[in-house]
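Please produce the structure of this protein holding zinc ion.
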Amino acid sequence: MVILGIETSCDETAAAMVEETGDAARPWRVLSNVVASQVDIHREWGGVVPELSARQHIRDICGVVEKAVEDAGSPRYDAIAVTQGPGLVGSLLVGLSFAKALAWARGVPLVPVHHLAGHVESLVLGGGEMPLPAVVLVVSGGHTSLYLEPRAGVFERLGRTRDDAAGEAYDKVAKLLGLGYPGGPVIDRLANQGNDRGVPLPRTRLTHADRNAPHLPGRSDFSFSGLKTAVVRHLQRRRTLLGLGADEPLPPADVVDLSASFQRVVVEILLDRLFDDARAHGAQSVGIAGGVSANSRLREDATTRGAAEGLPVFIPPLALSTDNAAMIAAAGLRAFRAGRVAEESLNADASLPMEAA
Ligand code: KG4
Ligand code: ZN
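Below is the modeled complex.
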C-alpha cells in the first residue's frame, strides 16, 4: 500500500509518498518527500504571519503535490493522509480542502492525522519501531509536550509548556540578539563557539516535582518565559555596563556566551523532564521529535544520557525533524491500518487534542 501525505499546518507546504514495507521492525519506506519552505517570506516580519502563510500554501500546493507524486516513480497511491490540526487554521484548511477534493476525485480514502503524531512517526521513519512503552518529547516552535506511548499510535500527555514553546524561546532570544528568524539554527551554531557557563541563567522552578511533591499532577510541565525574561534583563545590564544604546549590537563574545548558556539551560530542562518521566513510567525507549530536535547539543546530550541510562534514544534524521509530509503519510498509514478514515464532514481543527487523534 502507498499513501500520499499532505502537510500545511504552519509555514511549509509539504507532500510525500510513503509505502508499507511489510517489515514489522521498519514498517515504512519514503518514496518521495517534497517541502516548499516559506521561511524567506516570514523572515521579513520576524515570525510567521498566518494570512501570508495561507496564501502561499494556495500558490504552492499543486506543484508540491505533483512533484511528490512524480518523484515517487509510480503515480499510484491507495489513500491520502492530511494534517487536520493543530496549526494555523487558514493554512490547515488549504491542505485539508485540497486533500479532500483529491481523495474524492480519485476515489481513495482520506485519513486525518494529528500534526504531533506525525512528528512522533518521524522517529519510526528514522530508527524503526520504538520499544514500548516509550516517552516522547515533541519540541517545536509551537509545542513542547511530553507523551507516554503505551501502544503504537496511542498517546497520553504527561506534560506541556505553560507559556512559550522551546523553539519559540529560541526565536525570541534570537530576535533580542538581532540574529533574525528562525532563531534556533543560528543560536545553535553560535552556541558552539561560546562558554556555556558564561552567563548565569535560571532553571525554571515551577512544577510540583521542584517543590518536592512529585505525586501531584503537572509535575512534568515546562515554562520558558522566565528564562526569556532573564535574558532580557541580562542584555539590559550588559548594554548599560558597556554604554551601548538599545539598538546597538553587543560584542560577539557576549552573543556567543549568551547563546551557549541559553542553549545549555534549555537542553537541561528538556532532558531532565524526559529522562525523569522515562524512569517513572518504566519506558523501554525515549524519543525527541519536532523542529528543535535538530539542535546539535540536544541530540548529543540525549544520546550520552540514553547510553548512561541504558535507554535507546530515537531522534529523527535532520531532514525529518522540521515539518514535512513523509511523517504525516507514515502516521496516516498507521492510523489507516487501525481503521481510521475521515468522514465527509472532516474539518480543520487549530487546537486538535492529541488524545483525539
Ligand atoms: O517543527 P517545526 O518545523 O515547526 C513547528 O511545528 O513549530 O519547528 C520549528 C522550530 C523553530 O522555532 C526553530 O527555531 C526551531 O524549530 N529549530 C531549532 C533548530 N532548528 C530549528 N531550535 C534549536 N536548534 C536548532 N538547530
Ligand atoms: Zn511541526
